[in-house]
Every structure is written in C-alpha cells, then in structure tokens.
Amino acid sequence: MTTTKILAALVITSVALFTACKSSDPTPAASPNTMVIPVQIVNPAMVSLATSASIAILAGSAITSTGATNITGDIGLSPGTSIGGFPPGILTGTQHINDNIATQAKLDLTAAYNDAAGRTATDIVTLSGNIGGLTLTSGLYKSTSSLAISSGDLTFDAKGNANAVFIIQIASTLTTTSGRKVILSGGALASNIFWQVGSSATFGTTSDLKGTIMAMQSITFNTGATLDGKALARTGTITMAGNTVVKQ
Questions:
Q1: Average pLDDT, the chain
Q2: For residue range 56-68, what is the model confidence (pLDDT) as tens digits?
Q3: Cα–Cα 20 to 30 A to 48, which of 57, 88, 109, 243?
Q4: Does any domain span residue 50?
Q5: Which domain holds residue 41?
C-alpha cells in the first residue's frame, strides 16, 4: 500500500472514531435561553412586608432542619407548633412560636402576598418555563404556570438604581436545579426582589437564591442551598438540610 493510501485510511478511521464518540455522549450541551426581555419603563413600588420583614424563616404548619443549617434572623411559626433541628442547626436570632410576633407576621405576610399577586402594569413581561440564563431589569413579571431556573443562572440588573424593585408573579411552582445561582448586578438588592409563588418552592442542591420568597404552601431547601433574603410560607412547612439563610 502506498503512503498516500495509508494516510487516507488513517484519516477515515479517525473521523469515524470521533463521530462514534460524539454520538454516544449522554449529556449534550443544553440550549441557551434566547428569550429577549424588554426593559420596563415603570419601576414598581416596594411590597410592604410590615412585621414579617423581621423574620428570616416563617411557616404555617412546621419548620424542620437536618444537618448544619445556619440562619441569621428570626424564625416564626403560626399556627403550627413544631420547630426541629436547632441544634444542631445554628440560629442567630429568636424563635417565635405562636406568640404575638409570629401571629402578626403571618397576617402581614398574607397582606404582602396578596399585594404582590394583585399588581398590574401596562408593560408587564410574561415569563414561562426555564428562566435560567436571562437578565431581568426592574419591573413586574408574570407566569401563568410554573417557573424554573435551570440550564443557566438568573441575573437581576438594577442598572445603577439602588431603588430598583423586581416582582415575579408565579401561578404555580418555583424550582431550581442543582448549583444554579441568582446573580445581583448593577446595584440590585436582594431585599427588593419579591417572588410570589402560587403553590410551593423547591431549591436544588447547592443552589444560591436571592430575594423574598412568599409561597402559598411550602418551601424546601435541598442540601447546601443558600438564600440571601427571606423564606415565607403561608400554610405549609419549610424544610431545610444544611442550608445558609441570611435575612435581607
């Protein structure tokens, strides 16, 4: 066989092997989110949390934790009676179980939830499905079903306005996949981000969230998930597993 024929055979074999390896790859790259988010003209007014603003974790029926959960801020429970996992979890704050503070905080949470859910705007932006990879500026956002942060991180960009407010209305669930992050840009503040969740929220392992989560039912933090903000569940439980929550 000539040298030319040998080289040609080697090239064909290499191409075939490369093609076979590519076709057997079980984890193809996820498609980027190509949705274009328009900039809204009107900056929404803040959602008033009143006394619930002092609570890092607030639930209706129970609060449970396993592992090395670390909470900076108060815990409130009303009308439930069960808070478990502290210790070994660390609480830099005060537990309020069916006292005046917890009871009033639940009433104020209900008012704040209804305020956020009832907001309207002429330039409201509709979201759906996976919002990972998007950048949201100040404004009002609405989903008529569920939202997920997956296949990319989510950025809130205040564009230099420290008073920028972000309100996300979600008719059903909010979920994040493992390792996903919410990123603050342009001076955005976690205390100015409000997630109004129509049912329950679930945060994947080691995911990093920002903002006030107001869920109608329950909130679940999987192992290592973190939150800069507040987790407020109206009727259900808040479940934690070695998480870090810092009230903002």
A1: 89
A2: 999 999 999 999 9
A3: 243
A4: yes
A5: 35-246
